[in-house]
Amino acid sequence: MGIMRIGHISIKVMDIVAAVKHYEQVLGLKTTHTDAQGNVYLKCWDEWDKFSLILTPCDQAGLNHVAYKTEHDADLDSFQKRVEDYGISTQILPAESLPFVGRTLCFNLPSGHEMRIYAKKEYVGTDVGTMNPDPWPDDIRGSGVHWLDHCLLMCEMNPETGVNKVAENTKFMMEVLDFYMAEQIIVGPEKNIQAATWLFRSTTPHDIAFVAGPRQGLHHLAFYLDSWHDVLKAADIMGKNKVRIDVAPTRHGITRGETIYFFDPSGNRNETFAGLGYLAQPDRPVTTWSEEFLGRGIFYHTGELNAAFTEVYT
Ligand code: M3P
Ligand code: FE
After folding, report:
1. Active site annotation includes 219
2. Atom of ligand 1 nearest to the CA of 273
3. What does the pLDDT look like over 198-213, one tens digit per residue?
């Protein structure tokens, strides 16, 4: 079947102790490994592989790479050929280049973001196990997020020069990695500029999204919650922990997700996201949002975008 889902994201943080505290106490992940370089590996309670988040100490915030898990090891060879044939150079990192991870295909998206694809990661099991499991574990902390759901990458767009890395990334992801488009935003006087796309491989509305901005970067990493009530409770926990909230609980028109945006202590934006919105399927017609409805697409209730939301990112 090829790529199954987002497998992990590796991000830079400036204060590793504060970052670990945030992802453990506010979001509810658990640390599963710390390597000799001081990188910290964490997972959510409902995930079964060893980790889904890597925090790397650095003097700035931002993305190192995002990795997707493919079903079969042999997929890596076919993807390598397809990515190379498309004109993008690749590298295969040997197994254990990242601890607990098998050999990994590594390349840069047209936007410059580093993407990796791997097929194997150590299995550790969810916190409720597989035999007669309870619906949730007893030791849930903070918001108790279920899993890393998606990431949104900001891609350079400049209508004057015609550079549009959203469109380039989208074409590449669909033609080469077999992603499907759930939704898009189309802008410009000719209504022909693809300014944002939401793409999936799983059955959720997106496993990755691209939005146009002045420079490439990481807009957010999002974690899944069950319900609107869990989103509200997550906001309570953020209040208790004095987390910097960017956008208080609301609904997206795009994907129909129920959401909150907030920042980790280094300024990386996080989202907790509930509501699977709809069943994403390869034959589901693509939803398109026009420039006039862009605000409504992002924040359905107010229909208003605050500039900081699209301009501030790591
Ligand atoms: C989402 C989502 C932006 C839109 C964000 C939408 C950054 O995060 O999960 O659908 O404009
Ligand atoms: Fe999101």
Report:
1. no
2. 9
3. 999 999 999 999 999 9
- Tell me the residue range of the domain where 284 lies: 148-311
Note whether 153 and 114 are same-domain residues. no
Question: What are the phi and psi torsion angles at 151 (to 5°)?
Answer: -135, 160
Ion ligand 2: protein residues whose beta carbon lies under 5 Å: 222, 271
Number of domains in the chain: 2
Task: Read off the pLDDT band of 307 (50, 70, 90).
Answer: confident
For the chain, where are the alpha helices, taking DSSP H only? 16-21, 75-85, 165-176, 228-240, 294-298, 307-311
pLDDT digits (tens, 9 = 90+) for 260-293: 999 999 999 999 999 888 999 999 999 999 999 9
List the structure tokens of 69: 């898990």
Is residue 220 part of the annotated active site? The answer reads yes
pLDDT of residue 137: 97
Q: Of the residues 186, 254, 260, 314, which should be mutated to test ligand 1's pocket, given the most ligand atoms within 8 Å of the CB?
A: 254
* CATH number of the domain enclosing 29: 3.10.180.10
Do 163 and 229 fall within a single domain?
A: yes
Q: What's the pTM value of the predicted model, to 2 decimals?
A: 0.97
CA of 298 to the centre of ligand 2 (A): 10
CA dist., res. 200 & res. 142, Å (int) = 28
Pairing of strands 114-118, 62-70: parallel
Select from 252, 276, 309 the residue to mutate for testing ligand 1; criterion: most ligand atoms less than 8 Å from CB: 252
